[in-house]
Write a structure and sequence with these properties.
By secondary structure, the protein is of the alpha+beta class. The chain is built from 3 helices and 7 strands; from the N terminus they run ααββββββαβ. The longest helix is centred in the N-terminal third of the chain and has 26 residues.
Length: about 220
């Protein structure tokens, strides 16, 4: 696009108003119309920003809820060391948001930093330093519920000197905590000393869970 020179034939530089606005239909009247339009647009932008700032009020009254301040694994305690109370608009909160902890709560599912604590995320079992192991459902499983304590027995095939196959049954874990039940497996929490024997038993033998205490 060719730019016209702003220098007149007499060598004098044209003023800004004399060069640009003189070429717009309406001259100075158009100038003030543009200024008015710009002011109106600015007003709309300011109104939009203010509206965004006030939009929180449309989400309801700010409500106190418990929020995780660090990652919390299932089975860990949920208390003041890993949570804090914050305020959020009520309509932005998930169902079952917890406003305060009563003490002794345990996570039933993992929580990430910033997650709002809900009743669905609580009610887990405190398993401490235990490790969870899934026992396949094709083994001998009694009717169990979360919180039950079970002994874990394994039956191994042992050959005698004559080559006959006999079954030897051993206890590889005692008072293991049932942490989850499903159609295809039962999940139990065992101590560090019991972990390897239980895993080896699942791989090499036939597992039986014996209910020792109903919670």
């Amino acid at each position: 696009m060719q730019v016209e020179s702003l220098v007149s034939d007499s060598g004098r530089s044209l003023t800004w108003k004399g060069s640009v606005w003189a070429r717009i239909p309406g001259g100075r009247h158009s100038y003030w119309m543009v200024v008015a339009a710009a002011a109106a647009i600015t007003g709309l932008i300011v109104a939009a920003v203010v509206g965004l700032a006030d939009s929180g009020s449309s989400l309801g009254k700010r409500t106190s809820v418990v929020v995780a301040t660090q990652a919390i694994a299932a089975g860990e305690r949920v208390d003041e060391t890993n949570t804090e109370v914050r305020q959020y608009p009520a309509l932005s909160l998930p169902d079952g948001s917890v406003a305060a902890l009563g003490g002794g709560e345990v996570a039933s599912a993992g929580l990430y930093v910033g997650d709002v604590v809900t009743t669905a995320r609580l009610g887990g079992l405190q398993i401490g330093d235990r490790t969870e192991v899934a026992i396949p459902a094709h083994t001998a499983l009694p009717s169990l519920t979360t919180g039950d304590l079970v002994d874990v027995l394994v039956t191994l095939a042992v050959s005698d000197e004559l080559g006959s196959q006999n079954g030897a049954t051993l206890i590889v874990a005692t008072a293991a905590i049932v942490t989850h039940t499903a159609v295809d497996a039962i999940t139990i929490a065992v101590t560090d000393q019991e972990l390897l024997p239980v895993v080896s038993a699942v791989i090499q033998g036939t597992i039986t869970l014996a209910l020792v205490e109903r919670r």
